[in-house]
Amino acid sequence: MFKNVIVKTPGESYINGLTTSDLGTPILEKALDQHQAYVEALKACGVEVTILPSNVDFPDSTFVEDTAVLTPKFAVISNPGAPSRNKEIHEMEPALQSFYENIHYIQAPGTLEGGDILQIDDHFYIGLSARTNLAGAEQLKLILELENYKATIVQLEKFFHLKTGIAYLGDQTVVVAGEFVDHPDFNEYTKIIVPPEEVYAANCIRVNDYVIIPAGYPVTKQKINKAGFQTIELEMSEFQKLDGGLSCLSLRF
Ligand code: CIR
């Protein structure tokens, strides 16, 4: 069960955030409406939502997931690999200090973004991507093992972040797309396979009794429902334009 969630409102500079997609420039008003709906959906899942104010100096800072890795007992503050995002951690640190006494840090030359970290019960998977390097991944692995978790480092081939292509729903069930459909590291889990035309739906989040999924991906929604999970659908177009998904918009703990 999650009790708390941290989110951060998109600021006016959001439209200038990083992207690799060709879906166009986000519309700020629409992004703010979609963010508000995201907060409401989280509240409907029974969590307390801490909303941090926007900061125009950091266009991508609404994607708070990348700044930390959280467990019930400790936090790890990341070291984002995107230079324009790196200092977002300084704003997240005081927010996390109000919840955690035990805080670890990923240090340069290690880089790591939370979007590359997937927790499956007591086992963490750490993606090596354009944003998370081996030094960052090994630092996190060591921290997690000292805290009695298991950790596996996974080399990404095409996905932007690890969680762009995989989500854990609980009950040993993962949602997988693309390179993770047949990836040996995830063969021990029950797989819900996302068809290629719905790949964006692989980034979904289980929050207590619900799985929140992006709107407009009927095949994936039906498979998740059939596996016994209740879903909430949210419009995500303005976040998808900047390579962001449902997991990216919050830290859940
Ligand atoms: C970036 O390029 O960093 C942002 N535009 C998107 C970050 C998405 N975060 C995530 O997948 N955890």
From TrEMBL:
Substrate binds at L18, D60, E65, D66, R85, R131, L242. One of its GO terms (molecular function) is dimethylargininase activity. One of its GO terms (biological process) is citrulline metabolic process. The keyword Coiled coil does not apply. Keywords: Hydrolase. The active site is at H161 (proton donor), C248 (nucleophile). InterPro entries: DDAH-like (IPR033199). Belongs to the DDAH family. This is Aminohydrolase. It comes from Neobacillus massiliamazoniensis. The gene is ykgA.
